[in-house]
Structure formats: C-alpha cells, structure tokens
C-alpha cells in the first residue's frame, strides 16, 4: 500500500509530497520516495482547502559559446580610418599686449591648418605654452576668436630657462590627418624659426 505524506519544505509557499511504500524484501520497513514536481499551494486569500499544482523546473542558462570568436576587434570607423598626428608650432610676440597676442597666435593657428590641409573639425586638442614674461592674455583665447570653438584647449607656462627666447607662444596640436609623419608641416613663424631649425617650415 502507498501512503501520501506531506513534508513542509517551502514554508508558506507550499509543501512537497512524498510516497511511502513498503519494502518488498523487508516488509517491516518503508521506503520514502520524494516527488518534487507536485506542490501543495494555499488558495489565494486563504479560503478553501489547499490545492495540488504541478511544479515547474527552470531550464539552466545556456553556457556561453566560446567556440565563436569575439567580433569586437572588427568594429571600424564607418567612414574611414584616419591617423592621429601631432603638429608643433611657435611664434614670437613683439610686445606683451592682448590684442597683439590674439593677432600673432591666430596667424600661427591659421598657418598650421593651411599648410597641413586641415579644418577646425580635424583638430582633437591643442596645448599652448607661454614664456613667463607674457601676462596680458591666455593664448587659447585667440583660437576661440578665429572659430576653433569645440576643441579642448589648455594653457601652461613654459620653463623659465636662462637665455631662452622671450615672449614666445608655443603650441602642440593633435589632429586627425591622412598625412604621413614625414609630411606634417610644423610651423615656426618669424624669429621663432630659430627654436627648431630641424623641423621648422
């Protein structure tokens, strides 16, 4: 004879039922078989007797497919790949005056763009340095006045080296360009050409 026994294993959510069957070889002993698929659930609202419902087993998540290689390395610029180049430049001011600085720095930036076939959209960022004897304005202000408005700019003070050329503004511009490194034009205007005779053009 089979007996149905209730064992509470899920608290208020329900109970798992088990079948109790006598052992054939040992009539005095019983064998307990757990049936985890049938669960006694209380009725909504607590009214009426409990009901038997068929339990469900969730399928384990599918293991990752390591046989298929990642395609992340295949992501490319939809337009075309371009290189990042660094362009140097410098200009010497005749006097420490804000208007004069705007004029000379604007001339330097325009020459860098023109000689390298660039537009403001090709600019990534520009670093400006000024010698310690320049106090009238930020060199980066000249860039904003000629239309370079959405490019990160930063200013810093050049090292105060004894005997160095006075009143000089230097730039380091990072740009997107198809030009090879050997074809990049570094622009040193006027007397500043003496600073880097190896690359000044």
UniProtKB/TrEMBL annotation:
Residues 39-71 are annotated as: Disordered. It comes from the Bacteria. Its EC number is 5.4.99.5. It is an enzyme of class 5 (isomerase). Keywords: Amino-acid biosynthesis, Aromatic amino acid biosynthesis, Isomerase. It catalyses: chorismate = prephenate. Pfam families: CM_1. The keyword Isomerase applies. Gene3D superfamilies: RutC-like. This is chorismate mutase. It comes from Streptomyces enissocaesilis.
């Amino acid at each position: 004879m089979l007996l149905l026994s209730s064992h509470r294993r899920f608290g208020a959510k329900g109970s798992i039922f088990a079948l109790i069957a006598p052992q054939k070889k040992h009539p005095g002993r019983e064998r307990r078989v757990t049936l985890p698929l049938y669960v006694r659930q209380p009725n909504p609202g607590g009214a009426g007797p409990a009901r038997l419902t068929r339990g469900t087993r969730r399928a384990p998540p599918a293991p990752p497919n390591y046989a298929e290689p990642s395609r992340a390395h295949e992501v490319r610029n939809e337009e075309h790949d371009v290189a990042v180049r660094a362009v140097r430049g410098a200009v010497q001011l005749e006097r420490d005056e804000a208007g004069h600085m705007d004029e000379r720095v604007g001339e330097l930036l325009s020459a860098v763009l023109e000689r390298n076939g660039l537009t403001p959209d090709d600019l990534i960022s520009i670093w400006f340095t000024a010698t310690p004897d320049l106090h009238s304005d930020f060199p980066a202000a000249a860039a904003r006045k000629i239309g370079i408005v959405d490019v990160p700019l930063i200013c810093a003070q050049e090292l105060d080296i004894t005997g160095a050329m006075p009143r000089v503004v230097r730039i380091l511009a990072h740009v997107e360009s198809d030009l090879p490194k050997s074809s990049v034009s570094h622009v040193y205007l006027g007397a500043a050409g003496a600073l880097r005779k190896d690359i000044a053009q």
